[in-house]
Amino acid sequence: MILIPPYLKPGDTVGIVATARWITEEQLEPGIRFFEENGYRVKLGRFLSKKNFQLAGSDEERASDMQDMLDDVSVRAIMIARGGYGTVRVIDKLSWDSWLQNPSWICGYSDVTVLLSHVINLNVASIHSTMPISFPDATPAAMDNLARALSGRLDGMSWDTSCGGDLEMTGCFIGGNLSVLYSLMGSSSYPNLGGGILFVEDVDEMIYHVDRMMEGLKRGGGLLGVKAIVVGGLTLMKDNTIEHSFPMDNPFGGDALSAIQRVATDLGIPVIDGFLAGHLSDNRAFYNGREVHLMSKEGKAKLIWI
Question: Which fold has domain 156-305?
Fold first, then answer.
């Protein structure tokens, strides 16, 4: 049974930390302003702007910041400032014992898939959402979804899809960045997808890399029991072509979506594309790890949290 943390109310505290790349004070301002305008207090991590090459301080410092937010019972949501890479280097340094007694919402996407997946295995829901580094470029709908998700007013989502046919099912909606999920295979942070609906998105990948990751998930048993795959943004995908700075055209064949569809078809898993989440300006927040009712018919898809 997945535990749903308490939704936020005015006066609650949102913590902002960096588990991967650093962020400047100026880049943090839109995030602080957004949360304060929605009636929340803001607590900042100590090492958000400390530079250790790309990372926000050492692994120990980033873990310490995250642990402080996990252990602070006044912090009702933990927003990761930005992605990049580095969260996997702190995940095994964290203790979840205190947090599990009074869990808060953990929010973010991309590299934050490490945290979102890990807490699902602790039977706690989270929020897949845009992050402060991206707030200035986020659409009003993306920011509204985040506000609604935090306060418990997000009931469902609708979108146009080009594939999937007609279907209707229920299951736990789980997922995140495909590359990060692939990297978690075999670890305690890879989510249990049995009976679930998998969401994937990715950015700046070669098309054959997507094919390789899907093959790896299939062969490693990572897709066992998946009822459907919902695909979000496949942004800035590349191929072995002159257009992408290769010396000659030697395309892999197809696109990133078709690579996902090919493996899914082998396993009898339907695919629904067009979901508005991922490395997009319109990166709409959704609950990760909650049960949903998913429907798709005549190019229209909808999910409702139940």
Answer: Glucose Oxidase; domain 1 (3.50.30)
User: How many Å apart are CA 105 and CA 103, to the nearest integer?
Assistant: 7
50, 79 contact by CB (below 8 A): no
Q: Are 231 and 257 in contact (CB under 8 A)?
A: yes
Alpha carbon separation from 17 to 86, 119, 151 (Å, rounded): 13, 17, 20
Backbone angles phi, psi at 305, to 5 degrees: -75, 135
Q: What's the half-sphere exposure (Cβ side, CA atoms, 13 Å) at 281?
A: 5
Residue type, 45: G
209 with 39: CB under 8 angstroms?
no
Helix then strand count (H, E) for the chain reads 8, 15
pLDDT digits (tens, 9 = 90+) for 144-199: 999 999 999 999 999 999 986 799 999 999 999 999 999 999 999 999 999 999 99
Closest CA to 103 of 124, 121, 117: 124
Contact 286, 109 (CB under 8 A): no
What sign does the CA torsion over 39, 44, 177, 97 have?
negative
Structure tokens at 243: 């257009």
Mean pLDDT for all residues in the chain: 97
- CATH homologous superfamily of 13-151: Murein tetrapeptidase LD-carboxypeptidase, N-terminal domain (3.40.50.10740)
pTM of the model: 0.97
Distance (Å, rounded) from C-alpha 168 to C-alpha 153?
23
CA separation, residue 294 to residues 170, 176, 191, 272 (Å): 6, 17, 20, 10
CB atoms within 10 A of CB 2: 17
3-state secondary structure of 31: helix
Classify residue 236 by burial, with Cβ atoms within 10 Å: 0-12, 13-18, 19+. exposed
Q: Sketch the domain layout of the chain as residue ranges.
A: 13-151, 156-305
